[in-house]
């Protein structure tokens, strides 16, 4: 196993982060990406701490010092104060915290900061980045010894829409997808579309893709220099149709209508229009050729997944909402999921394609709008 040796790690790296988050030491001289020693890495997405039960879980999680890095793949809350409180709690407990925004973070209403409404979703994204800076939370690449961690900021477009029969999409213009009401995008990133508000944010995914470019280039340069690298990318949104809750054959690019053989195929079909973007997969695959192994973690659907596809392991490990846990849709026992151990080795787990079926031996669609 390759170990970098350029500059010794500070004896207590938690202290310098608290003292001066804006002036972190460089531990590796030949890359612009900061590095630190290896530590176990755990995942969690979709914390939705506006549910008091979820906030209690986070408080409990952070009530002790954790010798781990945690990846938080979006959807902490729409409420800025709660996002800040959660990131503060996590960074006081975990050795490293990695975060990327989800759709809930970019709602402009109910922000409860300043005037209570953010000026726009883009402005809120920038403010989130400054919150990350304040608490030493990473929203940029960072190397944990042989594991390079890279965030992928993302949104959805229509590229994951399943080729299901048209009647399943009927009534999409009335479907109460809250983002359509609560996000506020520049007009050039939206197009007329038969959805709530008649505007679909078609250009947001590609605009975020452009924001990721410098980080991905930096990551490639970093990986070219390293002798051994595992890469862990993370996005909030789904990277491909193969990650949709109902998709049963990750290796297949073709949708099988039989996978919608449950009581609410309309919800599954509609969700595919707000699930993610194939541009995420294109971006993360730019790093794969330079990696010995690649793990991508995502959030958003609240339906756990763990599978391999074309050489990459994909994991979705949400906290989800209390109601979803009760219905065996999200992990019943809220826990983080460990994906790398202290030595930088991947921690394997059973394949998971439809958690609810393995738990209930039944079938279940998406049950509610998020
Ligand atoms: Fe969520
Ligand atoms: Fe989400």
From TrEMBL:
<dbReference type="InterPro" id="IPR029052">
    <property type="entry name" value="Metallo-depent_PP-like"/>
</dbReference>
<dbReference type="InterPro" id="IPR052963">
    <property type="entry name" value="Pantetheine_PDE"/>
</dbReference>
<protein>
    <recommendedName>
        <fullName>Calcineurin-like phosphoesterase domain-containing protein</fullName>
    </recommendedName>
</protein>
<dbReference type="Pfam" id="PF00149">
    <property type="entry name" value="Metallophos"/>
</dbReference>
<feature type="domain" description="Calcineurin-like phosphoesterase">
    <location>
        <begin position="39"/>
        <end position="303"/>
    </location>
</feature>
<dbReference type="InterPro" id="IPR004843">
    <property type="entry name" value="Calcineurin-like_PHP"/>
</dbReference>
<dbReference type="GO" id="GO:0016787">
    <property type="term" value="F:hydrolase activity"/>
</dbReference>
């Amino acid at each position: 196993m390759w170990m970098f040796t350029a500059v010794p790690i500070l004896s207590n790296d938690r202290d310098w982060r608290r003292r001066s988050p804006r002036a972190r030491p460089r531990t590796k001289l030949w890359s612009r990406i900061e590095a630190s020693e290896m530590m176990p890495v755990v995942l969690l997405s979709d914390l939705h701490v506006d549910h008091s039960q979820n906030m209690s879980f986070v408080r409990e999680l952070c009530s002790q010092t954790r010798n781990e890095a945690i990846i938080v793949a979006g959807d902490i809350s729409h409420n800025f104060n709660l996002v800040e409180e959660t990131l503060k709690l996590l960074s006081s407990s975990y050795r490293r915290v990695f975060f990327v925004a989800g759709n809930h973070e970019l709602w402009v209403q109910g922000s409860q900061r300043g005037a209570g409404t953010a000026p726009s979703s883009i402005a809120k994204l920038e403010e989130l980045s400054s919150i990350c800076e304040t608490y030493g939370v990473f929203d940029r690449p960072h190397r944990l010894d042989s594991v390079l961690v890279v965030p992928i900021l993302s949104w959805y477009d229509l590229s994951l829409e399943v080729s299901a029969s048209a009647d399943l999409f009927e009534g999409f213009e009335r479907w109460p997808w809250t983002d359509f009401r609560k996000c506020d995008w520049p007009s050039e990133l939206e197009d007329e579309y038969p959805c709530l508000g008649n505007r679909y944010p078609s250009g947001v995914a590609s605009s975020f893709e452009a924001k990721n470019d410098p980080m991905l280039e930096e990551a490639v340069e970093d990986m070219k220099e390293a002798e051994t690298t595992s890469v862990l990318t993370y996005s909030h949104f789904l990277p491909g149709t193969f990650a949709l809750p109902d998709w049963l054959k990750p290796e297949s690019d073709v949708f099988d209508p039989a996978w919608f053989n449950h009581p609410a195929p309309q919800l599954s079909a509609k969700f595919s229009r707000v699930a993610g973007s194939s541009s995420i997969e294109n971006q993360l695959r730019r790093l794969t050729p330079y990696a010995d192994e690649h793990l991508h973690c995502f959030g958003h659907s609240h339906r756990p997944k763990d599978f391999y596809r074309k050489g990459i392991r994909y994991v979705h490990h949400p906290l989800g909402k209390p109601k979803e846990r009760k219905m065996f849709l999200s992990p019943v026992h809220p826990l983080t999921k460990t994906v790398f151990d202290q030595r930088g080795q991947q921690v394997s787990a059973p394949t998971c394609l439809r958690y609810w079926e393995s738990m209930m031996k039944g079938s279940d669609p998406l049950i509610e709008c998020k």
